[in-house]
UniProtKB/TrEMBL annotation:
Gene3D superfamilies: 3.40.1360.10, P-loop containing nucleotide triphosphate hydrolases. Residues 309-571 form the SF4 helicase domain. Pfam families: DnaB_C, Toprim_2. GO terms for molecular function: 5'-3' DNA helicase activity; ATP binding; single-stranded DNA binding. This is SF4 helicase domain-containing protein. It comes from Bacteroides oleiciplenus YIT 12058. PROSITE patterns: SF4_HELICASE. GO terms for biological process: DNA replication.
Length: 604
């Protein structure tokens, strides 16, 4: 059932078929009152007035319920998170100078009415660009009508936003309930589409950059139900990177890429040069993302050219020089890590992924049931991050503790075993949601044997493992993630002559030689307490530009904060005589969060 009366439409007691009735929008102002100019399709809820052009869609009960639930969600979302500063809106600043209005309408060719609708303000303030007071056009960022942030922009193109205020998409309220939306790279571009008649337009808040943390809170409430998402980023390198990341987060199947006319790099330039009608045509002609799994060299033309001109680049480094020399990482790849029980596989992988996250902004998702309860794991991660023991020890101030917890909240997510079986499909589905909602780029499964192994009829263990590794590799490629699988070796026998245990190798992983064959990287963690050394064997790196296989890196493990310090192995002269051990150790007890914002990353 659809409640037409709620919208002032009299259906004369009918609830199916098509009728004509009085239009609630224009009837009062009509000379010919009572004219039945509104055509209503009662079954489909679609209404159209042939006199004033009023269009309305009346939802059915189920849609209405969903809408209310979404509004409730939105209400809750807008109360969160409270630790951000919230500026107050000053209506007095909405009185704009003639110069600004002229700039808006004549130089930018934007619709005058938007100035009031978007509650644009004008203010003189000091901007970081030249530290002088400048007159600024201010884009106010509202959510549910509440001011969340403001972007100040001067004629000299200096910018600032409110310190400590949350970054959210510009004009987010406009897409709360719409089936489609347009995402632009700047506010002027969003206004260009609005000037052309579209209302469902938002802009990213901080230009083209691949850290999209600002959208995490809105994925479920504002993007999940969208059928089509137009991505109207700039036609330059940074814009392309933004475009890629938005497509990765929002799902290629519903994204369309908007391209602008010759000589125009963005929507506003297109509007100025070719006009509003033409700008709307860019939407109609927006490019669909090519079919998955079907490629030609044309699809890769630009990447191939870059590769041709620049050569292959090293991957993402960790900051451990000795390790980086032989192993760097790319997303879209899989890593298998192994080692004897208790040798520090989890400890090492924890530090590896924290380093990648801090240096490259790669957010982490863990399925790590052995690290349960999850707060034990958080405590270990905080020790590595701060370089301090977890607890109220000297140096661990309340501020640092809160900073660490907030950083973990923004960058690390745990998938916990719930009531559902922990099959690989279940974990990958959760991980997929985290890619969309939180921008995750690293998935750690630690360890493999804690997954529920559900063999299909007729499937052997070998077939199961091969299929599982195939699923991990496909997930890595499809979602451009680094997938890290920790796997235990089979029981190792001691050398009968020496009684020594040889080190674990990738072919020793329990179940199949395919762990080594199918992964892109193979690492083996081996601890030697007599030498006080940990050796990480880099047994496989599939691509030579990323590193070299059959190499290793030595570390000292610091028990207090769980960090791995790079070192070399040599003869150490001590009171008990000369014996092999660590030399040239690179001690590091620095607080890694020192120079970073809670949601950001460290680039050193
Ligand atoms: N080199 C080391 N020296 C001393 N303690 C270590 C070392 N490496 C790891 N540990 C400690 O050993 C314990 C086990 O480490 P971790 O869980 O990382 O090992 P693992 O190889 O993943 O074990 P498992 O095979 O049981 O999953 C942890 O408490 C860790 O702090």
């Amino acid at each position: 059932m659809r409640n037409f009366h709620q919208y002032g439409i009299d259906t004369k007691g009918r609830n199916s078929g098509k009728i004509k009735t009085i239009c609630p929008k224009c009837n009062d102002t009509r000379g010919h009152k009572g004219d039945k100019s509104l055509a209503v399709n009662l079954s489909e809820g679609v209404c159209y007035c042939h006199h004033c052009g009023y269009k309305l869609y009346v939802p059915d009960d189920a849609e209405e319920r969903q809408r209310k639930q979404r509004q409730e969600q939105l209400r809750k979302v807008s109360q969160l998170p409270s630790h951000f500063r919230r500026p107050t809106f000053d209506p007095a600043k909405a009185k704009l100078s003639e110069k600004l209005e002229k700039y808006w309408t004549q130089e930018r060719c934007l619709a005058q009415n938007l100035l009031a609708e978007l509650r644009i303000t004008e203010e003189c303030t000091k901007l970081p660009g030249n530290n002088e007071i400048e007159n600024c056009l201010c884009f106010n960022y509202f959510e549910n009508g509440i001011l969340i942030n403001t972007k100040y922009r001067s004629a000299l193109k200096h910018f600032k936003m409110v310190t400590g205020a949350e970054l959210i998409p510009y004009n987010i309220d406009a897409i709360a309930d719409t089936p489609e939306c347009i995402i632009t790279e700047g506010e002027f571009d969003a206004c260009a589409f609005m000037s052309a008649g579209r209302k469902d337009v938002i802009s990213v808040p901080a230009g083209a950059q691949s850290n999209l943390t600002w959208m995490d809170r809105f994925v479920e409430t504002h993007f999940e139900q969208k059928k089509v998402i137009y991505i109207a980023a700039d036609e330059d390198g940074a814009g392309q990177a933004l475009r890629h990341e938005l497509v990765r987060r929002l799902g290629a199947e519903r994204c369309r890429l908007v391209h602008f006319g010759p000589g125009c790099k963005d929507a506003n330039e297109h509007l100025i040069r070719y006009g509003a009608e033409s700008l709307l045509i860019t939407l109609a002609q927006a490019e669909e993302i090519p079919l998955e799994g079907v490629f030609t060299a044309e699809d890769y033309r630009e990447d191939l050219r870059a590769l041709f001109e620049n050569g292959l680049c090293r991957g993402a480094d960790t900051g451990w020089d000795n390790f980086d020399a032989n192993c760097t990482f790319e997303t879209g790849r899989s890593v298998v890590a192994t080692g004897s029980p208790g040798h520090g596989k989890s400890e090492f992988i924890d530090e590896l992924v924290l380093r990648l996250c801090l240096r490259h902004g790669w957010k982490i998702a863990y399925f790590s049931p052995e690290n349960s309860p999850v707060n034990y794991h958080h405590a270990k991660l905080i020790e590595k991050l701060t370089g301090l023991q977890f607890g109220p020890v000297p140096g661990m101030t309340e501020e640092l503790y809160n900073h660490s917890v907030n950083w973990l909240t923004a960058n690390v997510t745990h998938i916990l075993p719930g009531t559902d079986a922990c099959t690989i499909d279940h974990i990958l589905e959760k991980a997929r949601q985290l890619v969309y909602r939180r921008g995750v780029r690293i998935l750690v499964i630690d360890p493999l044997n804690r997954l529920d192994q559900q063999l299909e009829p007729g499937q052997t263990e070998l077939m199961y493992i091969t299929s599982l590794l195939g699923k991990l590799n496909r997930f890595a490629v499809q979602h451009k993630c680094l997938v890290i699988l920790v796997a235990h070796p089979r029981k190792m026998n001691r050398n009968t002559a020496t009684g020594e245990l040889r080190r674990v190798e990738m072919n020793d992983i329990n179940g199949s030689a395919n762990f080594g064959n199918m992964s892109d990287y193979c690492l083996c963690v081996s601890r030697d307490d007599a030498k006080q050394l940990v050796t990480v064997y880099i047994d496989k790196v599939r691509f030579k530009h990323l590193g070299s296989a059959n190499t290793d890196a030595k570390f000292v493990y610091n028990r207090l904060n769980g960090r791995y310090w790079p070192c070399e192995e040599d003869i150490v002269h001590g009171p008990d005589g000369d014996k092999p051990g660590p030399v040239n150790t690179k001690f590091d007890n620095e607080n890694w969060l020192k120079n970073i914002a809670e949601q950001g990353c460290l680039f050193n």
